[in-house]
## 1
Amino acid sequence: MSKRLSILGSTGSIGENTLKVCHNLGDEIEIVYLTANKNADKLIKQANVFHPKAVVIIEESFVEYVKENIPESIDVLVGRTGLLEIAGRNDVDIVMNGLVGSAGMEPTIRSLEAGVNVALSNKESLVMAGSVIESVKKKTGAKIFPVDSEHSAIWQCLTGEDLSDVKKIILTGSGGPFRTRDINTFSEITPKEALNHPNWNMGNKITIDSATMMNKGLEVIEAKWLFGLEANQIEIVIHPESIIHSMIEFFDGSVKAQLGVPDMKIPIQYSLSFPRHVEANWETLDLVKIKNLTFEAPNFDKFPCIKLAYDALKSGGSTPVVLNVANEQAVYQFLNGRIKFIDIPKVIEKTCAVHQWIAEPTLDEILELELWTTDFVNEFN
Ligand code: MG
């Protein structure tokens, strides 16, 4: 029987790669729902190819346009309400959450509440609501399958192992476009330069996060929740070739790594085909051609966002919520030319420092903190 799949954010980078994977998996996958923010043309195209039961267009002004251009048999839901409703439906086997930023958090919770497993690319969900998500999972038994390449690697390395034998995990990161750039020129970094990632082709938000290395910081927090680890068990190593996607080190000194070409279709497919690794039609790894794999320590002076994320993880409670939302707002301000690249960590640090800390925020408190943080960042800048 085929697996019934809902794709949240189907017109984004993860969504499009998921559809390519679905094409590869053929009859094994049935696409039931597709959702898009405002890319109506792409959504229409996808709906006409995959014939889902329903689609969601978040931008309300496009709803008639979408309806006019897809078969009548496909329902069209609208806005954030439509997205949350689709996310909460239990007539699917798995939800791919490829949404961008904190907007992806509530849909993750809705799907898990409905008892549906989530293939999670939206790392902000766990960064903001790790504890809430943990308790929902316990209640309904639904699972999260990581899609982030590093976490997929750790997941694959942990298969067949006992977590209590693991001393630490080593998350690899490419180092982004500014790894070798002189720190004295960081104040001149333009959005165009920051959007030019050397290895991975991704959406704008995550590409800027890779340039500041906040992406790696968020991944540290994500790993804590996915695998039940402490901050001091999660290490970062810079690996510019992006071939080793992450590693685990056991107490006896044995290290296990997962390798592959930097192609998101691999972790996406594994999240859908788990526990099997099935045939694929894309380029595979040629180590002889690559020849050298290199490693270096992360540079905390150049990339203060990494330390901010570790600090937020140690502080716990509401701090990761504020860290995440402040980062998101600062990234958009940078992209809009309102602040400099080097201001991004400053904005985050200040916002985390002044917020009113809560030990165990509920979902409502997290949503309130999201609004507070958004207002705060946009008022003082
Ligand atoms: Mg990643």
## 2
Amino acid sequence: MPTKKSTTSSGKLTATLRIGHGDSVKEIELPMQSGTMGPDVIDVRQLYGKANVFTYDPAFMATASCESRITYIDGEKGVLLHRGYSIAELAKNGDFLEVCYLLINGELPNAEQKKKFVHDITHHTMLHDQVQYFFRGFRRDAHPMAVMVGVVGALSAFYHDETDYNEPHARMVATYRMIAKMPTIAAWAYKYSMGQPFVYPQNRFGFAENFMQMMFATPCEEYQVSPVVARAMDQILILHADHEQNASTSTVRLAGSSGANPFACIAAGIATLWGPAHGGANEAVIRMLKRIGSKDRIGEFITRAKDPNDTFRLMGFGHRVYKNFDPRATIMRKSAHDVLNEMGMGDNPLLPIAMELERIALEDDYFVQRKLYPNVDFYSGIILQAMGIPSRLFTAVFAVARTVGWMAQWNEMMDDPGRKIGRPRQIYTGHTQRAYVPVKRRA
Ligand code: SDX
């Protein structure tokens, strides 16, 4: 039955739900809440108690799982704000560690705060020397995301349960450790797959520069990181830092709601991000562009993407929230040209295929009607590939960036005095109770 929005005599916003039909209609009044931006919410916490019914929203298409002050997306307008600052301004004027400070603390750091934060993160980039042995248990051809899940999960054994994460200081130490160590873990996953020795972090480098040198330096010669490439990597990290309650962030929040060790929660977030519908899409985009191979085959793939009986989808297109250009994709597209030109790869064959694919898709009714635009993953793979990063490592780079978002959201959840363990209900459509039948009497 329709729900009506109204205000009580005290001016409070309420929703009245009419349940039933004919003479047996029951009216349930539910409180509503307004945020600073975005849709109002109907608070359904009393619904089961008042009406003995649940709400049903399997993929959380219209369900707010929490209150947050960290990131805001306006999907219709293609707006992304971190603590009120637009992603375009942060990507243009800021750097990744400054955005990390903002996401965690709620404000941009002043010069002194920034200097201390950079120092503290830099001095947490090393791994306990025993951690290197976790890599050696994997085959050399193990997918880096499998390695990341395993090694990050193992960190929970290094900072163990006696740490009380209800203590804000313990949470901040875990936050610094996680942000600082992810580049080292991702770089070592790459080195291990290449059969090259691990390269240690160097405190003289910036965050993105350090990540690049740990990936590509060897003991044989000095390694110089191109400033353009380091800046492009820093910008990629900013663009992937946080994104409201996406699948991996929701996983970290749900795991954390039980009081689980934060490193184990981040391992669960990495596992979720790995999926091709989520952070694994950047690797899938490159595979797709290589499969298309040339502009004249684009039509064939567009047809397949539109065929409801074909599971093929255009990787890097579409988004649960953005029904306009993903602002991160817009920034990434420009950066792709800069990096390719810097790397002398302006003739990269995948870029013209990507540009033509985007042009065709944006004119095609199927995509226009469904508001399917390029998302953050569409161009990121082209830039990462131009930097010499193998496609199997793309999602690990996404995880390095998203760790600050996961930790900021985990802290916000742990800080909430009303925190409760997340435990969704269900609609049951299985058998009603039935008697056990001994095997001799079964058909
Ligand atoms: C990320 O949540 C986040 O914020 C995620 C992220 C972040 O920063 O954390 O932004 C990062 O994960 C970006 C998304 C990366 N994934 C991909 O690029 C994979 C390809 N995209 C699709 O799988 C899809 O668009 C999703 C998963 C991103 C969104 O799927 P939804 O919201 O569940 O939408 P849907 O699958 O219901 O699609 C609606 C319609 C369907 O057609 P109809 O049933 O209405 O006929 O659009 C179609 C879909 O078939 N559709 C596509 C398509 N994406 C959706 N058709 C062809 N190609 C596509 N890419």
